[in-house]
Each structure stands twice: as C-alpha cells, then as structure tokens.
Amino acid sequence: MSERSQIIANLESVWSSIDEMCSTFSPTDWQVRSLCPDWTLHGVLAHLCAVEFALTGWLPESADSPLPFDRVAPFLAEAATLDGAALLDRFRATIAQRRQELAATDDATFAAGSPTPVGKATYGRFMAVREFDFWVHERDMRVPLGRRGDDGGPAAEMALDEVHQSMGYIVGKRAGAPDGSSVAVRLTGPVEREIFVAVDGRAALVDHLDDPTTTLSTDSLTFMLLACGRIDPAGPIGDGRITWSGDATLGEQVARNLRFTM
Asked: Which domain CATH number covers 99?
C-alpha cells in the first residue's frame, strides 16, 4: 500500500470512528468537559470540523503557501450556534467533501511540498498530522465518558508515529536526560512497540540499545495521553500504568515529562 493509500485509509478509519461515537451522544454528553480543558465534547468536534472545512477546496502551491486557517474562526462562530445533532450533520457533510477531494488526488499530490502545522514538509505529511489530530481528539471525547474504543490498529500506529519521531526532543529537552544516558520505552499494547533514545551530545532516536540507562513500560494509550498532555502523570505513576527499571531517578524524570504537545 502506498503512503497516500495508507494515510487516506487511516483518515477514513478515524473519521468513521468519530462519526459512530458521536451518533450515540445524548444532549448532556455534548456538554461534558473533554480532556482538552477549554473544550466540551461539542467544542472538540467543532474544532475538528473547522479545520477540515478550512482544508476543503485547498491544495498548496508550494511549501511556502499560507495555510487556509483564516476560515476556522468564522466556522467556529457558526458551530457555536448549532446543537450536537446539527454539528454532527455539518461534520458529515464536510468529511464527505474531504473524502471526494482526497480520492481525486494521486501520489504526486501527497509528495508535493506543503506547509504543515509542524513546518514545511509535504501534503502527505500534513494529512498524517491530521490523522494524528483526529485520533487524539477522539480519545479526548471517549475517555471522559468512559467509552473505550479500538486503541490499536493502523490508525493508532500512525498516530503513535507522530510521538515516536519526537522522542529525541522529549527525552533530551522535556525530560532533560543527561549526556551519556539512554532511555528505552516499551509499549505493551494495544500497539506494541519499542522506542530507543540515546543522548550523545544531543538526544536522538537509535535503532537499538543493549543496556539502556532506564526502561519505561506502559500501554500505548497511556503513553499517548501523557505525550499529548491529556493526563497528569501522577495518576498512571501512582496506579502502576507506567513503570520503570534501571536508573530510578531518570525513569521518573522521563515518566513525569513525556508531554510535548496539547
């Protein structure tokens, strides 16, 4: 499967999952506070829909093209007047347009230069970031309601990739791991993965570590919620959802400082 096909398939997965979940919300559910403290569940869906609405009909001419986010604020103002059911209808209409537009692209479109929220890259990279945003925001809605979804599979793997490639920054800058140290992260599921970072002047991802200074173990959902700043690390540290071995000081230091985005 090409990169374009995989990204589109994962977007389809998160779009459908959010649609299915939101279709079950009661009027009270829409007003529940999400894991993003400034947003209700209504606010989370409005945000997701606003960005996709802004991207509708837009393709960058180059990596220097401006992002079309000037369309977001007017959409959010309109969305604030809609009840949950009407907002979900608007979401469905917007996603239907995005499906059509992405289906009409080709591999060259996804390889072309584009501005993205993480800097100049490709349109495909931008769409991978959008998949990450949807995956995380779905958990922002699910977790407060106590509704577990499918936290594994290709869509979860792609969302995790966004954090994985930032682990050098997280370990080196956020956690302040000292020079000469190394960190292994073992994710036990639903997504199983090993992530290795060594600090040699600067912290960077490496393929393997024979004897890491410290090893963290946790499930992939807890890891993602910590990395995205959704939960206080004191909770999973206290209840054992995240543990570490080896250098206890460094292990706790990393466990408490995984957050790199909100």
From this structure: 1.20.120.450
Q: Which of 147, 27, 139, 8 is nearest to 87 (CA)?
A: 27
What is this structure's pTM? 0.96
CA distance 54 to 177: 40
Query: How many alpha carbons fall within 13 Å on the CB side of residue 221?
Result: 15
State the amino acid at position 251 in one-letter form.
G
Name the CA radius of gyration of the chain, rounded. 19
Query: Strand 113-114 vs strand 121-122: parallel, antiparallel, or unpaired?
Result: antiparallel
Determine contact, residues 126/133, Cβ cutoff 8 Å: no
Of 149, 183, 202, the residue at which a domain comes to its end is 149
Q: Could you give the angle at the alpha carbon of 136 between the alpha carbons of 130 and 138, nearest 5°?
A: 100
Is the same domain home to 96 and 224? no
Query: Which residues constitute the domain of residue 225?
Result: 166-255
- Looking at the fold, whether 82 and 185 belong to one and the same domain comes out as no
**203-249, pLDDT tens digit by residue?**
999 999 999 999 999 999 999 999 999 999 999 999 999 999 999 99
Residue 20 burial by CB count (10 A; 0-12/13-18/19+): exposed, middle or buried?
exposed
Task: Examine the domain organization and report whether 126 and 247 are in the same domain.
Answer: no
Shared-domain flag, residues 63 and 180:
no
Residue 251: partners with Cβ closer than 8 Å, 6 or more residues away: 214, 215, 216, 244, 245
Query: How many whole angstroms separate alpha carbon 126 and alpha carbon 114?
Result: 7
Q: Do 243 and 206 share a structural domain?
A: yes
Q: How many CB atoms lie within 10 A of CB 108?
A: 9
